[in-house]
TrEMBL record:
The keyword Glycosyltransferase applies. One of its GO terms (biological process) is fucose metabolic process. It comes from Actinidia chinensis var. chinensis (Chinese soft-hair kiwi). Belongs to the glycosyltransferase GT106 family. GO terms for molecular function: glycosyltransferase activity. This is O-fucosyltransferase family protein. PANTHER family: O-FUCOSYLTRANSFERASE FAMILY PROTEIN, PROTEIN MANNAN SYNTHESIS-RELATED 1. It holds the Pfam family O-FucT. Keywords: Carbohydrate metabolism, Fucose metabolism, Glycosyltransferase, Transferase.
Length: 409
């Protein structure tokens, strides 16, 4: 009987070895044949040059902040307050926070913790409903004073409103904001975003330690929301493991295609945005297998997306992967602000990110991905993959033109 048991164990071990070997062969076959069009260079940049493995390898170690914690401005804090709100979604929040912190620190003012305003009048939420208050306050401790609540004597109607350009410089503050602050004592800030939403490190040399800290070291999702988004990311990873490949997040929303500019092209022949058919053709042309797991930022399915699902059946939206039970109630994706939060963080965490439209969402997602060394970012193009590898790599990565490269090393 003992001999029979040893034989059984040996047989099981043999079967197990063959299964493992089979899986290895399948994976090697998958990597070398199905995804042979893409490779990652020593610098971690995506190259469409026809070799093995590529962007599907594990992410490299996260970069470390290059900045030092800024020293507080001499002269201490004044009695004035800077009021502002976060609007339009997380891709705007990053920039709005940075501008408010830079202005308040330069003026020596107290920064009031912002509310988060939605697209509808009643969609107003406290900062702590979305972001980690303790993390925010601690990250700026000793740099700028933070007030959790607006002083009751300050009425928004009576405050002087000031529009500041995104990535506001000290020179601009000294000339246009400081005189008003000295006269009025309190100001309400609103960040103005120019038509060009690119962020080039070489063009903005003032991007110093304070700006880096404000953009990349202050905002973190509050714990429950962070957990829910994490569960959604893990579900996408589990689905992608079943097909033995990566999961791709595509920023594709039908409403953005209604803009006339979407069908226009830039000086290099690239469109400003791409529809479901064009995204599907691009993914197939660059070598993504039919079973690739794809996440779309679109809220709710529409027939305009059917061509993509026909090419890639494993295409999902937020509604498909949202958690059940209590956690589903926390994540009310019918509210646009929560939907945008989900999109922003899933696109930041995906194995591969494909922006179907240029803009601030693309820019600030890339910033978060650079910080975590997730540089697998492919920009759609109508050219064939063999024509030019540079046509598919985000120029933020290939040219290191994103300001995040000034903040991390």
């Amino acid at each position: 009987m003992a001999m029979d048991m040893r034989q059984i164990v040996a047989a099981l071990l043999t079967v197990s070895m063959f299964v493992m070997l089979g899986n290895m062969i399948k994976r090697d076959h998958f990597d070398s044949l199905e995804y042979k069009a893409i490779k990652v260079s020593k610098q971690g940049l995506v190259k469409v040059i026809g070799a093995t493995k590529g962007v599907w390898k594990g992410d490299e170690d996260a970069l470390k902040p290059c900045w030092n914690k800024p020293l507080p401005k001499e002269g201490g804090q004044s009695r004035g307050f800077i009021i502002f709100s976060l609007t339009d979604g997380p891709e705007y929040h990053v920039s709005q926070i940075a501008d408010a912190v830079v202005v308040a620190t330069y003026l020596g003012a107290t920064l009031v913790l912002p509310h988060i305003r939605g697209t509808k009048p009643r969609d107003t939420r406290s900062f702590g409903e979305i972001y980690n208050e303790k993390k925010f306050v601690k990250s700026l401790d000793g740099i700028v004073r933070i007030a959790k609540y607006r002083p009751p004597q300050l009425s928004v109607e009576k405050l002087t409103a000031v529009r500041v350009p995104n990535r506001v410089s000290e020179a601009y503050i000294a000339t246009n904001i400081e005189p008003l602050f000295k006269t009025k004592g309190n100001l309400s800030l609103e960040t103005h975003f120019p038509s060009s939403t690119t962020m080039n490190a070489k063009e903005f040399e003032y991007f110093d330690s304070l700006s880096c800290l404000a953009m990349f070291g202050t905002l973190e999702l509050q714990s429950e929301l962070k957990q829910v988004v994490g569960l959604m990311v893990e579900r996408l990873r589990a689905l992608s493991r079943k097909s033995n490949g990566p999961f791709v997040a595509v920023d594709l929303r039908v409403e953005m295609l209604e803009n006339k500019e979407c069908r226009e092209s830039d000086d290099f022949g690239k469109l400003w945005c791409y529809n479901a058919v064009e995204v599907g053709e691009f993914l197939k042309g660059i070598g993504f297998h039919r079973n690739t797991t794809i996440y779309l930022t679109q809220s709710g399915w529409t027939s305009l997306l059917d061509p993509l699902r026909q090419s890639y059946p494993k295409t999902y939206t937020k509604e498909d992967i949202r958690p059940a039970g209590k956690k589903a109630k926390l994540l009310n994706i019918e509210i646009s602000e929560f939907a945008k939060i989900v999109d922003f963080h899933i696109c930041s965490e995906s194995d591969v990110f494909v922006p179907a439209k240029s803009g601030l969402f693309y820019t600030n997602v890339v910033g978060k991905r650079i910080a975590s060394r997730k540089t697998q970012i492919l920009v759609p193009s109508k050219t064939t993959p063999s024509s030019s590898s540079d046509a598919h790599i985000s120029p933020y990565i290939s040219k290191k033109s994103h300001s995040a490269f000034s903040c991390f090393c």
